[in-house]
Predict the structure.
Amino acid sequence: MITGAFFLLALFVLPMWNITLEAPQYPDSIGMDIWINKITDHNPNDIKNINLMNHYVGMKPIPEHMREFEIFPWVIGVMSFIGVAIGFIGKKNLYLAWFIVMIILGAAGMYDFYLWEYDYGHNLDPTAAIKIPGQGYQPPLIGRKEILNFTAISRPMSGAYFLFAGILMSLFAYFISKGEELKYEKEEAI
């Protein structure tokens, strides 16, 4: 349980998500890495190029600041601390409770990300140079999607894998402790 809770802290040093755009005019592709507190270029000048390209279809610039960048680090820090404390307490039901809370928080985070992508791809400037009626430019939440002559690819990065592993470790700790409890009860019965 303690190790899993510490795995969450990897989000402070590793990116969570990546969105990449592939197109003939960008043979090396362009993309952005999403962290818990910022969005950065995947390669030098990628965000600048994405913003220039998106301007023509009326999309907003990639934000330098979002309210989530203030909230997510606190959530991760607090949940990691609580997870370590639960690990020291050693109560199996608390392991399960932490797992459930983390699943709920993760689902809320993914939903928030989807809403941001939806707004970003559909709330377009009506005075944009290029207008295609009914066309949205929302990248996929996860996976690949064709958007005009671009292939948008959205996928988790190393930070997300540490997060998933940490959450799963708490569930594993719950089942291990439950097994030890059953073993102890059998030994007492004998």
